[in-house]
Request: fold
Amino acid sequence: MPKGVRLPLEALEPYLLPTPVTEALDWQKIFGNAHPVELEVGFGKGLYLVNAAAAHPEVNYFGIEIVRKYQLLAATRLAKRELRNVRVACTDARPFLRDWVPSASLQRIHVYFPDPWWKKRHHKRRLFTGEFAATCQRLLMPTGELLVVTDVADYATLVRQTVAASTQLSEAEPPPEHTPSHDLDYLTHFERKFRQEGRTIHRLRFVNSPSPGTTKSLL
Ligand SMILES: C[S@@+](CC[C@H](N)C(=O)[O-])C[C@H]1O[C@@H](n2cnc3c(N)ncnc32)[C@H](O)[C@@H]1O
Reply:
């Protein structure tokens, strides 16, 4: 199959979590095992999910993306590699996480290059609100962590302020910057683009335990 061609829906179904859902998610039922679960919000073309799932078969990954085209593109990449430890949903992560994901059920939450939506009339589209930060804390296991990466310095500040004001998560040492060994060896597609442009990348890590710095990161 040529690169970039989306697989038929039947082939993607094992990777898709259909929405809307009508009951709280049960990770064990969804993945068929009790491995820890990590969430990526706004996965775009899915590079992080593909690389992380291939490197960590002992972890289950769940991605939420609001754009259907990206959900199907990421599912195609996962299906071509038979990465059965990933499910992807197409929905607005904010109400979905608030209403359907069990408390203390996630080992990590990854939010990479969220859209900043600076214009006032677009603020309601922003992912990172006090409610979203509080939801992240509720969903994290006691030793869980929230990882946020952005190229926008003001957005990094907004995230820090929001997390401090709305949660008890503590900021910890960020993961070190990885040196890519090939063209797909980046955290995400946006990270590749921005690093190749020479932009500064802001990496934030917040931990749910009172002893920051002890948690191993997969970044
Ligand atoms: C700037 S892109 C970054 C994509 C990817 N994380 C990367 O780094 O390559 C932000 C992504 O978040 C998605 N997104 C924005 N708001 C969202 C929401 N409320 N729920 C789920 N996904 C959202 C967008 O559709 C877009 O794919």
